[in-house]
Write a structure and sequence with these properties.
The chain is α+β, with helices and mostly antiparallel strands. The protein has 6 helices and 4 strands, in the order βαβααβαααβ. Strands 2-1-4-3 form a 4-stranded antiparallel β-sheet.
Amino acid sequence: MAVFYDYFSAPDDRAAASAFAEGPEDAGFDTVCVKAIDPAVLLSQAVALLVREPFSRVIEYPRFCDLVTSPEAENICVLTLPDEMRDALAAAPCERLAEICIPWAQAEEFHGATDPGSLADFLNELAAVAGRARPLAHRLYCRVLV
């Protein structure tokens, strides 16, 4: 079963929830689409490496993967990402993102089949979204589609 993740920025939770059905890109939000990099585990591991904090601290950030949309929806949801994640990604130089992708690629959830360069490409795209969102006081979200 494939799971798709649409990471995007929006002004607030209400606006983010509007991307539920049609998707954030179609709704006009700044979006990065990826398969198999979930926000709760894998992205959080990358952020932990980036900010040099334990994973357990990152998942305690306020607004960590809070549900924005109805819990009754079975195959789709929109989750919040903490402002701390947005800010860390927005401030990260490309070199630092590439550096953390080497240990991140070894995460057991990748099953040894992930290229650090591809991960760096993803993080650079997400960092660009975060960088555009931050001065507007927009927040980051993830639409999960199973």
